[in-house]
Amino acid sequence: MSALDAIHALRDALGADVVALPEEFGDKRVADWSGLPSARPLALLRPRNADEVANALAICTRYRQPVVTQGGLTGLVGGANLRGDEVALSLERMNRIVEIDAVSGTITVEAGVALQIVQEAATAAGFYFPLDLGARGSCVIGGNLATNAGGNRVIKYGMMRDQVLGIEAVLASGEIIGGLDKMIKNNSGYDLRHLLIGSEGTLAVITRVVLRLRPKPTAAATAWCGLPDFESVTTLLTRAQASLAAGVSAFEVMWAGYHDAVITNLNTLRAPLADAHPFYVLLESVGADPARHNEAFEEFLGAMLEAGVVTDAAIATNEAHARDFWAIRDAPGEYQRFIPDHAAYDVSFSIAQAGDAAQRCEARLRERWPDALVMTYGHLGDGNIHIVVDVPGMGKHDHDDIDRVIYDVTREFNGSISAEHGIGTKKRDYLPQSRRKADIAAMRAIKTALDPLGILNPGKVV
Amino acid sequence: MSALDAIHALRDALGADVVALPEEFGDKRVADWSGLPSARPLALLRPRNADEVANALAICTRYRQPVVTQGGLTGLVGGANLRGDEVALSLERMNRIVEIDAVSGTITVEAGVALQIVQEAATAAGFYFPLDLGARGSCVIGGNLATNAGGNRVIKYGMMRDQVLGIEAVLASGEIIGGLDKMIKNNSGYDLRHLLIGSEGTLAVITRVVLRLRPKPTAAATAWCGLPDFESVTTLLTRAQASLAAGVSAFEVMWAGYHDAVITNLNTLRAPLADAHPFYVLLESVGADPARHNEAFEEFLGAMLEAGVVTDAAIATNEAHARDFWAIRDAPGEYQRFIPDHAAYDVSFSIAQAGDAAQRCEARLRERWPDALVMTYGHLGDGNIHIVVDVPGMGKHDHDDIDRVIYDVTREFNGSISAEHGIGTKKRDYLPQSRRKADIAAMRAIKTALDPLGILNPGKVV
């Protein structure tokens, strides 16, 4: 049984239109955004429905042919990249919205539909789909599930895991599991959905899903705050969560080092406050009932200024003004322009320890590289901190050493080496820094139970 | 290797204080509230910490000795009951609150602590722990996790699954997995937490957990509404979720049959509205900022009356008044007084189909038992309906036939046979009504992967 036999069998069963050979799919992009090495697939499978996926995987199992499932290819950890002995299974043709159920508040979609299409369909139906990230136009729902995507509004709405009611998926054997369930509560046996979510394509291929829709917010308020110390940042967070009736929809903290570097290096950005502060917070609340909502937001911010929790603040007077605040927080999209070779981290801690952890990371980095540029920011309401590091003349060796510094501190604070991006191949060797040996053994046992031949996304995660 | 050898080895390793023999634990209750058959355990293990649990399970694995983990024994499906060849592992001594972290908003507890103790500790620390159910004084956190408990406030705060940050557990082998993580976001490998939640003690013994605390609500409003039809009920739900800024914290629907039966049979209850209506809804909103909150709630209800969505309504004027409304919804605690032999169901559907599904259940029951008492009510915001059935002179045979009617309709509507109570032994034979054959095979493969000898809660769920 050679890979050639597998591809012949696939082509016989599914046709040349579904199973393309390298000379047919040409130079089509088949690697993610990580920049990590990737090979070309032996064939590119583009099934049109769950039955074709099932058929393809059953054949791959018969021939022990490895398969890498690919969605929008916007991942950052090499999770969809190839070693060279695999076929790629692209969900690009499974990109339809199946149904919107306005009474149940659900949208049923194929796994290859782009996140932005789902957001737009929800809005058109009078609802809101809250998951949002920069890659919204390219990333697809199946990939959002495979990586349990996060983003800016997790603090109010949760991660991708929290948006899902039903998942239909195909196991390596070609058997279909799950379904298009719309029940919010379902305690009938093990929750296979949650096991598949975040498993990065190693346990099954997700084919269709039922997502939960939320009411469309009709009120929003956004403020940019300057704060004196990290304790004030956590105080502001706790008080905002207790006082703002609609809840906090974004709480993005930026250390001064981040703020100053992006304002200095990107001339499209302007500092919202006149003076410098050790910490900045972008605070946002969304809800219903604009008059009461905005009045309460202003009252709250006034109380925080009076209490000295916030030193200075600006409230966005309109949407364009709010977008200017968000542009500072979204500056990482523009890093390439001034630090093309930077190292970037996506770690999480308890909220209480995030400040100390970030401080220790920076101190350790400066011991070794006194001139390092260290930019720290993130979704503090979720304990999720991004750290971006640039050292003069950075090479591969420095990059590995910086990895070690960050992940050592992460272990010391019992944090996670991957808050939202996943493990892929990039962080696989560091997984023991975040998980016990027995956890990893249990993951491997589950992997073997569901994919005994190891044909699904081999070499990823575990 | 006999069971006797196992018990000797356990007693040698852990001492007589931890491993009690039948003559020592006497007539202590060791069965749940289901009334299903249960045997006495060969020994009762009461470990004091995770290491003792690990030690005990390693010995049980060595001797292939089955173990049933027991918490508060308040389950309704036989999930903690015994066949007769098992030892019982009680978490009653692991009942301490380990830590409250007010900055991170977390509480760390041992798995044997009662739900009500956690609620009280949260309140004392200025927070709120939202999960709530009638058995709060007896049920324990480990059991709430093992069954993914629900309750009345799922619509705003989610189920037990949504309250958990970290889980430490012991596998059948005696290895400890997981830990006391406080990260809200953690995408480092498979999420073993979510696999254990709802697995009813068949995959591991949960020993300690980190739970998420919420801000304590400072405002609450409660209304009792009479509605003309099911469509109006779902309209009220959708509009309330979109319009009430703080969100809906309870949306309990009662069909007229339920309302009339409990008001007639329980003389402590009084109907809140003068006229009869086909449907009643208990609507509650909790949040911050009482003045704005209550004013908005009244405005919303006024608009619903004007639109004819709600025919008549009463707003609770104080807490005692609100408790009177809740007493009607909580009447199931008193059923034994007028229908001692009833059959009770906990099913879920999409919100849109819940009305038709309930109607079909009632129609099918009446075809066979024209005089049946059918009481339908539930957490409609979660698609979760409870159906209680009493037929004249009900015997075991009737009970089985009623099961079949309800679960057939559940399958026809693609619903779940267990929204919140779990499977245990009671619903095991009906699991194929809610889950695919391939799902059940996958669950069995996972069970075998994590508990190869099948010593944990044998015969339950799968």
From TrEMBL, chains A, B:
PROSITE patterns: FAD_PCMH (PS51387). GO terms for biological process: respiratory electron transport chain. Pfam families: FAD-oxidase_C (PF02913), FAD_binding_4 (PF01565). Belongs to the FAD-binding oxidoreductase/transferase type 4 family. The lineage of its organism: Bacteria, Pseudomonadati, Pseudomonadota, Betaproteobacteria, Burkholderiales. GO terms for molecular function: FAD binding; oxidoreductase activity. It comes from Caballeronia temeraria. Gene3D superfamilies: 3.30.465.10, 3.30.70.2190, 3.30.70.2740, Vanillyl-alcohol Oxidase, Chain A, domain 4 (1.10.45.10). Residues 37-216 form the FAD-binding PCMH-type domain. Its cofactor is FAD. The keyword Ribonucleoprotein does not apply. Keywords: FAD, Flavoprotein, Oxidoreductase. This is FAD linked oxidase domain-containing protein. InterPro entries: FAD-bd_oxidored_4_C (IPR004113), FAD-bd_PCMH (IPR016166), FAD-bd_PCMH-like_sf (IPR036318), FAD-bd_PCMH_sub2 (IPR016169), FAD-linked_Oxase-like_C (IPR016164), FAD-oxidored/transferase_4 (IPR051264), Oxid_FAD_bind_N (IPR006094), Vanillyl_alc_oxidase_C-sub2 (IPR016171).
